ABC transporter
Amino acid sequence: MSDRAGFRDLLRLTAGHRRVLTLAIVLTVAASGLGMLQPLLVRHGIDSVGTRPLSWWFIAGIAGLFLVQAAVDGLGLFMLERSGERVVLSVRKRLIARLLRLRMPAYEDHRLGDLISRLSVDTTVLRDVVSTASVQLVAGGLTGLGTAVLMLLLDPVLFGLVAATVSVAAVVVAALLGRLREAGERTQRGVGEMAADLERALGAIRMVRANRAEPREERRIGERAESAFAAGVQAAKLTSVMTPAVELAIRGSLLLVLLIGGARVAANATSLGELVAFLLYATYLVVPLISLLQGIGLVQRGMGALQRVHEASLLPVESDTVPRSPILPVRSAPVLEFREVRFSYGKRTVLDGVSFRVEPRTSVALVGKSGAGKSTVFSLAERFYQPFSGTVLLNGADLNGMSLSDCRSRLALVDQNVPILHGTLRENLLYAAPDADAEDLARVLETVNLAGLVAGLPDGLDTQVGERGNMLSGGERQRVAIARALLTRPDLLLLDEPSAHLDQINEFALTMALERAGRECALLIIAHRLATVRRAGRILVLDEGRIAGDGTHDELTVSCPLYRRLVENQLSEDRSTGSRPAEAASAG
Ligand SMILES: Nc1ncnc2c1ncn2[C@@H]1O[C@H](COP(=O)(O)OP(=O)(O)OP(=O)(O)O)[C@@H](O)[C@H]1O
């Protein structure tokens, strides 16, 4: 992105806030203008002191001017800060809406921590650009220009001296700006990578601890912090060359002004008051010029940050062009049907013509080797991905003809990774159906056999479950997730059964929960335990991208060699771990 395009994009950010922003800048500039009046008044005071004494009115006038300047300045700054926050708020809201609706592959291609850092860190830089750089540039520019004009009017010769020295510094600054922008971009990228690595480690903190990997993670994340630090130091080096260059130029010119101006006063070419006023203006010039410089530096950083925010806001989102008109279920149609569905992740074919049906209120188990594509079947039913060819139908209607919201409201998904959110048990249960009443809550808790557990908790449903639900056992988390799913009264519950062996109590509770859930809706279960497979009315065996077997346990044991192998393999594994084979076996 060129500097000009980057600057245009920064300006575009302020659309909708320009009136307030302009007023805020006007107030800040007016405050600087009032400040500039002060040397003129001082000159008047000094020059007139020989003829008559200073009046109280005069002193009160100067004091009043100070107060008004402070008030105007304060108001302007507040409005600027607020505008900066407003701009950032709208950028953040747009980005939040976008990040929650990206297409699934976008989450796989980008690191979550980096996306979060774009939303938090980069937008904060944008706020600084709006609230600080804008006034630094405008007020610095105008005040600098005004001061320069007054200096020129007061004494063109002395002004020429100051202008020549400052121009040398300006050349140094211009030469360093491009590198400052690059360093700014590297800092932002480094912070994003650090956040992504920290998210990776904290998201799997138990695994990190169990593998005693804290020092390794510390080193790895520390390295990211160091590269952000190195880029930050590089930016600091550039700034620390630029700022003193300007300061030096102005202070050097002050010395020259004193020397040459003093000689001109002695030769009666100018008055002492005029020299003092000129000197005051020359010292005042430091502030706007440094402001300008800082503003330019911040804009350079802002362009880097905006680039990152832009990249995130251009990521593809799920398109939901179909109107939200509910499609009436076709009576007697299967609740879910796959017709010759083909799907691949990139070049890798996972489903190669899969066809099956799940009839209403039936329980179907989906089994297959690891990597056979069982979870992919769920992802296509939920429309996380689009099939390459073939059709997925829900209640007899093509998924592509339904709105995403309509389609997902009829399904409930309980993933193997059971996402339980930080918050209370109640918040987790009501997540999909916020309006569900106490009776509904009691019903689903009873269904998943959690009513006893909740009754025993000191805070009942208002108990905090911890980050990712870590205050609950694995089996309890699974049942909370099933309860949450049932609260929406779905037509079909998609459940990825936990492959880890549950203890007997939890296993029994889960089996009961599934049996009761089966009375409310159809179930399609990726089954990992033989007990679940046997209880399902029908079993689908997925292999090599196709349905290799479809029938009951007894039928498949006879007709499907792969099913027999799957069952036998799992049974032998269970014997080696010493658990009860008939109940705890997994076919997945
Ligand atoms: N997002 C993805 N991008 C690329 N490949 C993927 C992705 N998700 C899954 N795969 C691959 O697709 C194949 C099917 O994966 P899937 O998760 O559907 O299998 P599964 O039968 O559910 O496996 P398991 O029983 O081990 O959970 C696997 O080989 C997997 O490596």
